[in-house]
Amino acid sequence: MSHNLALCKILVKKAVDAGAKALFLPEATDYIASNPQESIALAQPMESSPFLLGLKEAARDSSLAINVGIHVPAKSGKIYNRSCWIDQTGTIKPGYIYDKVHVFDYGALKESNSVEPGSSIAEPVETIVGRVGLLICFDLRFPEISLALKRKNAQVITYPSAFTVPTGKAHWETLLRARAIETQAYVIAAAQVGAHNEKRTSYGHSMVVDPWGKVLVDLPGEGTDPEMGLVDIDLDYHEKIKREMPLLRRTC
Ligand SMILES: O=C(O)CNC(=O)[C@H](CS)NC(=O)CCC(=O)C(=O)O
């Protein structure tokens, strides 16, 4: 976790140097464990997690908002797979969190062994880059939840992710573009890349798609340094797309 925090701080510096107002980090940025027991054992409460406290401090010191995926202990003894919005003062206000609703049980991965599913869709967060709807990774396959955020006027939807390589190759870009086209929102999907342990490798291809479905960023995931892309979130463009093709007024 201290290693991951150090990598995050490199990205914070890159973001600040590039003039960014917000930085989007992947799902499970604190750690990816080798098995469900380890994942549960490593989870720390938000109040005392050195990873999260360090990231909040970095946000405050650099006046940079940060979206990050972490693990948090749940009352059931399992953990929540959580997406947090840290604002540019380093604060996670009430309502700035979302717990992954759809857990990923596929092939060798049984997320439900360790993760307690969340039970609600968070209101979009009013941020320095617009109204941000928080979702996570496998939620990407369930259009309903992103359309619920569209009805709540989300301008940006985030999917911090750690997709598997085969499902990523088959579906990742198509799903992200579809969600952006349907919701007419910016879709931002920071993704883990490469080998985590002998059993797990993530697909990568961190991607940003604009409200028309155009891919603005697709990071190659090469080399050893953490990579970052830079985009302008153009809220006027988002409005224009919605005005010219008002999908919500129609019924079906
Ligand atoms: O394990 C952790 O700590 C973090 N969580 C994840 O990486 C999760 C659960 S295993 N991964 C996914 O949801 C991949 C979804 C996917 O690949 C797909 O929908 O095709």
From TrEMBL:
Keywords: Hydrolase. Transmembrane segments: none annotated. It comes from the Eukaryota. InterPro entries: C-N_Hydrolase, C-N_Hydrolase_sf, Nit1/2_C-N_Hydrolase. It holds the Pfam family CN_hydrolase. Residues 1-237 form the CN hydrolase domain. The keyword Hydrolase applies. One of its GO terms (molecular function) is hydrolase activity, acting on carbon-nitrogen (but not peptide) bonds, in linear amides. PANTHER family: DEAMINATED GLUTATHIONE AMIDASE, NITRILASE-RELATED. This is Carbon-nitrogen hydrolase-2.
